[in-house]
Each structure stands twice: as C-alpha cells, then as structure tokens.
Specification:
single chain, 2 domains, 90% helix, elongated
Length: 188
C-alpha cells in the first residue's frame, strides 16, 4: 500500500507539473500572439511612415522646382515688352478659362454621381420595402427597375453632351464667321 501511495503521489506530482507546464506554455503562446499582433501593427506603421516620407520628399522636390523658378523670375529684368505682356495675359486667360471648364465638368460629374448613388439607394430601399411587404417573390415584381437605376447615368451623359454643345457653339460661330470673311474676301 505504501508503494501504491507513493506511486499515486508521484502521479499527482507529475499531473500537477504537466498542468503547470501546460498553463505556462499557453501563457507563452498568448504572449507570442500579442507580440505578433504588435509587430504587425508596428510594420504597418513603419510602412505608413515610409509612404508619408516619400510623399514629403516628392513635395520637397516640387517646392524646390518652384523656388528655383521663382528665383529665375526674380533675377530676370522686370521690363518686358508689350507683346510679351500680351502673350502672358493671353496665356493666363486661357489657363483660367480651361480651369473654369474643368471645374464645371468636375462639378457636373460629382453632382451626377451623387444623384446616381441617391437614386440607386432609393431604388434598393424601395425594392426591400416592396419585397418585404409582399412576403413572397415573384419573378416580375421582385426584379429591380433597371431604368430607375440607370436614370442618373443618363442624366450625367445628357449634361455632358449639353456642355460640350455649349462649348462647341461659340467655336462653330467663330469658324462660320471666319468662313464668311474668307469667302467674302475671295469674291472681291
């Protein structure tokens, strides 16, 4: 019996040691998991910092180019001929007109996209309400109305076409006026 008791105690000690080892190992595994997650986060932060650093370097390079150009402009003589001023003014006016046109196009596109998303969301919400109230689905009534979904895109395209026509109308008038001038010159 004493030998059974000592074997029993030895087995109990072994079980306790194994349980302690298992608890210690699971604690180490948890710590390793936390460490791994922190390392992943650190790697992401380092990658973000590298991207930000490259953006800052590009920005610094652009600023250097602008500074060099400004230095050249400052060092140039301030006296310019009237033709240079007129060319500069004409170029600036063209740039401003182009910028306005681009701004209008971007505004039209943004508004059309917003309308499109609003219409799609409304269509899907109406579809959900319709299918929820009917309880059963039939092939005709549960399908989305494609015309309602595509309506904002149609509006966008029409607006772009109208703007293109408005822009091309003055050019056409100028071209027809020039053609009339040339044809009248040829007749005389």
């Amino acid at each position: 019996m004493a030998s059974h008791k000592s074997i029993h105690e030895a087995l109990d000690n072994l079980v306790n040691k194994l349980e302690n080892l298992q608890a210690e190992k699971s604690s180490q595994i948890e710590d390793a998991g936390k460490l791994s997650a922190n390392l992943d986060r650190l790697a992401e932060l380092i990658a973000n910092l590298e991207v930000q650093s490259s953006r800052e370097n590009k920005l610094v390079q652009k600023f250097e180019v602008i500074i060099n150009q400004l230095d050249r402009l400052v060092k140039e003589p301030l006296v310019r001929s009237e033709s240079e001023r007129g060319d500069l003014e004409f170029t600036l006016r063209k740039i401003i007109a182009g910028t306005r046109t681009v701004g209008q196009v971007i505004e039209i596109i943004a508004n059309s996209i917003q309308l499109m998303f609003d219409s799609i969301i409304k269509t899907f919400n109406d579809f959900k309400v319709t299918t929820a109230s009917q309880g059963t689905r039939s092939s005709n009534s549960s399908s989305l109305d494609l015309a309602r979904v595509l309506e904002p895109m149609n509006t966008l395209l029409r607006t772009l076409v109208n703007n293109m026509e408005k822009k091309s109308d003055p050019e056409i008038k100028v071209n027809t006026d020039e053609t009339r001038d040339v044809s009248s010159d040829n007749r005389t």
